[in-house]
Amino acid sequence: MNAEILRPRVSDKAAALAATHAMQQMAHDLGTYADKDIPGMVYAQVSTAQGITLETNPAGSSSMDTDGDEYEATSEKISLYAHNLYTHEMQLICISGLIALAKAR
Questions:
Q1: Cα–chain-centroid distance for residue 78?
Q2: What is the 3-state secondary structure (H, E, C) of 23-83?
Q3: Which domain range does residue 91 map to?
Q4: Which of 55, 71, 86, 100 has a CB 3.0–4.6 Å from the CB of 18, allowing a cystine?
Q5: Are 64 and 82 in contact (CB under 8 A)?
Q6: Which pLDDT score, from 0 to 100, does residue 70 have?
Q7: Confidence of residue 92 (pLDDT cuts 50, 70, 90)
């Protein structure tokens, strides 16, 4: 699963918070993880300089990320690539983060 979105027009912190909130809400709604585990398992990291990570399980390296070799900090579009998203629930969690980032205008 790959995605391409326009760069959020809000601060990195605001974009990360919006994506994290959407992803954690989706994880809760799906019952993917125990609620107490969600904050450490599901989150977004956004850095204009370094790229984006939408994490669904850090122990399993299950995420959608920008590619460090291809990421361009000045590009209007950002490409993200899936890594170890073995379940539909993990995919939905990442998609919810993508939607939140796309709406962060």
A1: 12
A2: HHHHHHHHCCCCHHHHHHHCEEEEECCCEEEEEEEHHHCEEEECCCCCCCCCCCEEEEEEE
A3: 2-103
A4: 100
A5: yes
A6: 86
A7: very high
Both structure tokens of 25: 């809400």
- Structural domain count of the chain: 1
Q: Answer left, alpha or beta for residue 90, where phi above 0 means left and psi between -120 and 50 means alpha.
A: alpha
In this structure, what token pair is assigned to residue 87?
Answer: 């379940």
pLDDT, averaged across the chain: 94
- Averaged pLDDT, 85-90: 94
